[in-house]
């Protein structure tokens, strides 16, 4: 005897999981990754406060597209990190546990930077990666020192928020 549920999310899962998995498999080229992202899509939906499921495929596609973007961004960060590790002498290579921790931190930083407004990100990176002083950044970008300080403050606030996650 089949169990019947009145839960709209359970119905949505049964009705659309196969379609979503197929769509993700075509996007990613991997059935296993598609299965993971399909599950993550429904978990995100489960965490939503609103129960409006008016256009379920549009909603599922919207959520899944964001997860696919996150997936490819993470893969790019991971690939760059692995390329750096490959150049290290074997004696200096970090343990697998350390590699995972560093990769997670890099992905959080990447997501934080991607979430900043473009001007804030540019100013923040000029300071933190290029080592420019606030005055040099203001001169280079033709803006005021107070504006640079405001953008840097916002960048640091975003960093602290990323650390709390």
Automatic annotation (TrEMBL):
- Return the NCBIfam families for the record: PRK12528.1, sigma70-ECF
Keyword list (alphabetical) reads:
Sigma factor, Transcription, Transcription regulation
Coiled-coil region list? none
Q: Which InterPro entries match?
A: RNA_pol_sigma-70-like (IPR039425), RNA_pol_sigma-70_dom (IPR014284), RNA_pol_sigma70_r2 (IPR007627), RNA_pol_sigma70_r4_t2 (IPR013249), RNA_pol_sigma_r2 (IPR013325), RNA_pol_sigma_r3/r4-like (IPR013324), WH-like_DNA-bd_sf (IPR036388)
The reply to whether Chloroplast figures as a keyword in the UniProt entry is: no
Q: Which SUPFAM superfamilies match?
A: Sigma2 domain of RNA polymerase sigma factors (SSF88946), Sigma3 and sigma4 domains of RNA polymerase sigma factors (SSF88659)
Regarding protein family, the annotation reads:
Belongs to the sigma-70 factor family. ECF subfamily.
Mind listing the GO molecular function terms for this protein? DNA binding; sigma factor activity
Q: What is this protein called?
A: RNA polymerase sigma factor, sigma-70 family
- What is the protein's species of origin? Azospira oryzae (strain ATCC BAA-33 / DSM 13638 / PS)
TM spans, by residue?
Answer: none
Give start and end of each RNA polymerase sigma factor 70 region 4 type domain.
Answer: 109-155
| Highest taxon of source | Bacteria
GO biological process terms, alphabetically, are: DNA-templated transcription initiation
Q: What is the lineage of its organism?
A: Bacteria, Pseudomonadati, Pseudomonadota, Betaproteobacteria, Rhodocyclales
Cite the RNA polymerase sigma-70 region domain residue spans from the record. 12-76
């Amino acid at each position: 005897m089949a169990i019947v549920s009145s839960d709209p999310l359970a119905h949505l899962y049964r009705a659309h999981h196969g379609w979503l998995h197929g769509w993700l498999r075509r996007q990613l080229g991997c059935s296993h990754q598609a299965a993971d992202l399909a599950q993550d899509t429904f978990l995100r939906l489960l965490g939503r406060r609103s129960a409006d499921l008016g256009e379920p495929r549009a909603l599922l596609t919207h959520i899944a597209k964001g997860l696919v973007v996150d997936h490819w961004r993470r893969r790019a960060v991971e690939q760059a990190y692995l390329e750096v590790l490959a150049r290290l002498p074997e004696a200096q290579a970090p343990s697998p546990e350390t590699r995972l921790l560093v990769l997670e931190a890099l992905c959080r930083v990447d997501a934080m930077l991607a979430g900043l407004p473009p001007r804030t990100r540019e100013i923040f990176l000029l300071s933190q990666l290029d080592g420019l002083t606030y005055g040099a950044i203001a001169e280079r970008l033709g803006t005021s020192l107070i504006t640079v300080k405001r953008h840097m403050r916002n960048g640091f606030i975003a960093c602290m928020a990323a650390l709390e996650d």
